[in-house]
Write a structure and sequence with these properties.
- With 312 residues, the chain is of the alpha/beta class.
- The protein has a domain of 212 residues: Aldolase class I (TIM Barrel), CATH 3.20.20.70.
- It contains 13 helices and eight strands.
- The chain has an eight-stranded parallel sheet.
- The model has no long low-confidence stretch (mean pLDDT 97).
Length: 312
């Protein structure tokens, strides 16, 4: 199995829709190009940000094919492969592997609230069935159950479980994973400000973030997410974090990816509306987001975001 070092900034891509609520694959490829040109360490496909649960099976497979073709040899890509059943998750992971994914991202099954032992068996069965690097995606708010640190530590002994993406409000849980695994897998986190995970992860030896804000500000999230190797890294990460903290807060002001799509449309990415039942960003929050982006220079005519998407 090819080794995958999941570290640094891995922004999650949105799924762009046209006015007929169909996936716009041309714009999807431009989103990959935007990340490549602006220093992201990797990209994430078919995560929460992509509205993955609102996509048809055919849309999912074509998104994989088109995105991986655009990313090949330019930036590594993780593909969300989760399903409600172990069988379907294995099938999704096999498709991602055959399509050329660098790794798979697996969240715990939603709604059924499995026990810790059942979660362990779920991840283990997939890992043993598919020769593909896998990242555990712990997202308790969306699934109703937490993957406990002790369960992650058991899974870390499997060769192709290479990283954890933590997306829950539990800094202690992250520190406990680091304590128990001792470098056997990379620990990353989401960039949700209210979870306050980034600094505990980086300070404890974690390897970065898989984030939302990097989809609109990839250069800055690459700085924030760089693993700390010296004090200069700490200072740069801290300064950039607090500069962009207001934008991060806006990215989570409503259900992901509603705010992100609004931000991308403001800079000319033309990613369309969220798919129903998700609704467009509220007028009040849209106004606040616009002010925030203007203050940070993201909406300046010569910003790298505006410059890139004006060329598309």
């Amino acid at each position: 199995m090819k080794k995958l070092d999941v570290a640094g900034s891995w922004p999650a891509l949105v799924t762009p829709f046209n006015d007929d609520d169909e996936v716009d694959y041309d714009i999807l490829r431009s989103l990959v190009d935007f990340q490549v040109e602006n220093g992201s360490d990797g990209i994430l496909l078919l995560g929460s940000t992509s509205e993955a649960t609102l996509l048809s099976p055919d849309e999912r497979t074509k998104i994989i094919d088109e995105s991986l073709a655009a990313a090949k040899g330019r930036v590594p890509a993780l593909v969300g492969v989760s399903a409600s059943t172990t069988k379907q998750t294995i099938e999704n992971a096999r498709y991602a592997k055959d399509a050329g994914a660098d790794g798979g991202l697996i969240v715990q099954p939603g709604y059924i609230r499995p026990s810790q032992d059942a979660l362990y068996r779920y991840f283990k069965d997939v890992a043993e069935a598919v020769d593909l690097p896998l990242v555990i995606y712990n997202n308790p708010s969306r699934t109703g159950v937490n993957v406990e640190a002790e369960t992650v530590a058991r899974l870390a002994h499997l060769e192709n479980i290479v990283a954890l993406k933590e997306a829950g409000p539990n800094p202690y849980g992250v520190l406990r994973v680091v304590e128990l695994t001792r470098g056997r897998l990379n620990v990353l986190c989401c960039d949700c400000p209210t979870y306050a995970l980034i600094f505990p992860v980086l300070a404890s030896g974690g390897k970065g973030t898989s984030n939302v804000t990097g989809s609109i500000a990839p250069r800055e999230l690459a700085v924030i997410s760089k693993p700390w190797e010296n004090f200069e890294d700490v200072v740069k990460s801290r300064e950039t974090f607090f500069t962009y903290f207001p934008l991060m807060r806006m990215m989570y002001a409503e259900t992901n990816p509603v705010p992100l799509k609004a931000a991308l449309n403001m800079v000319g990415a033309n990613v369309g509306k969220p798919r129903k039942p998700l609704q467009e960003f509220s007028k009040e929050n849209t106004a606040t987001l616009r002010v925030t982006m203007k203050r940070l220079g993201v909406l300046d005519e010569d910003s790298y975001q505006m410059e890139f998407f004006s060329r598309q």
